[in-house]
Amino acid sequence: MARKTPELQTSSMADISFLLLTFFLLTSSIDTDLGLSRKLPPLPDESVPPPPIKQRNVFVVLVNAYDMLLVEGKPGNINTLREDAKEFFLNPNNDPNLSEKRPIENIDYIGPYERSKGVISLQNDRGTSYEMYIAVQNELTAAVNEMRDELSMDKFGKKFDDLTNEEHRKAIQKAIPVAISEAEPKDIGGD
Amino acid sequence: MARFRKGQKKEVPGINTGSMSDIIFMFLFFFMVITTIREATLFVKINAPSATEVQKLERKNLVSYIYIGTPIKTNLYGSESRIQLNDQFATVDDIAEFIEQERAARSEYDRQFLTTSFKIDKEVKMGIVTDVKQELRKVGAYKINYSTKRGSVLN
């Protein structure tokens, strides 16, 4: 007759797994990495001249070593930067000082749309603080995101982030691209 | 009805703890999956700036981190902003080699998705950050992410 194997004592198993659990709880961090994603431009080719861009199509943002802003030649304010950038791109009254529009073209799913020729040029000093730089980047991104949301609400009745249809997202991205160009670094002021 | 009750002792049965370990194990696996073990011991103080338009950084195994901040041990390393790569201090010249190593550690296909995450203290001056960015452009690591906290920037 086969001998009965004694039953495994499993009550301490819970204790062991509790130990493991506390170990992982303590050594790990649940921080999901958040941040602003950017794509750096390739190094400029000396032999190819930069494409000509009209002065009125460039939204110049300068940040100096004292974290002060110069927006389009005037002292700027971080609180109004977002609105300024949006107005520059949308240019509702066709102000000759703000960005030009491309000829009306048909974008799939959106229909005829006047794309802006505007580009943001962001230049900072070596002495600018990183906090200010991120604040400016954030405001400019917010301007683009708000414009996308507005167009998306208008056309699809949803915010851009809530769009599930990949084609719709692409259409919006085509209509309003992220046009933030970082100027080649210059050493203007001291550190 | 009374027939059924006859001869039965009123006794509360003991709680079966056999499945307890399974539940705890489920917890354990859950935490193991959603968490990341800290990738490096920080030698520099990093207090990230806040931003509102943040995006999540996807695919953590394809991210290489560059830390910049003032050293924690200021009496040993001074108070100048320093770059930290992996587990040691580095200079701007080490960036190219670092990216090369990070690329070599990934498969051919994954290399194009490699992102460089900047974990930078908000007090740091842009000079050193610009130098690092120029170095990244030289080696063709164009995808970057400025690590920030979620919060309002306007103060």
The protein's oligomeric status is heterodimer
Give the number of helices of chain A: 4
Please count the beta strands of chain B (DSSP E, at least 2 residues each).
10
Number of strands of chain A: 9
State Rg of chain B.
26 Å
Arithmetic mean pLDDT of chain A = 82
Low-confidence stretches of chain B: none
Molecular shape of chain B:
elongated
Secondary-structure element order of chain B, N to C: HHEEEEEHEEHEHEE
Radius of gyration of chain A from CA coordinates: 26 Å
What's the helix-strand series of chain A? Answer: HEEEEEHEEEHHE
Overall mean pLDDT of chain B stands at: 84
Gross CATH architecture of the domain at 44-150 in chain B: 2-Layer Sandwich
**Backbone structural class of chain B:** alpha/beta
Instruction: Compute the separation of the termini of chain A in Å.
Output: 89 Å
Which labels suit this protein?
heterodimer; A: five-stranded mixed β-sheet; about 35% helix; about 20% strand; B: alpha/beta; Nucleotidyltransferase, domain 5; six-stranded mixed β-sheet; two-stranded parallel sheet; 5 helices; about 30% helix; elongated
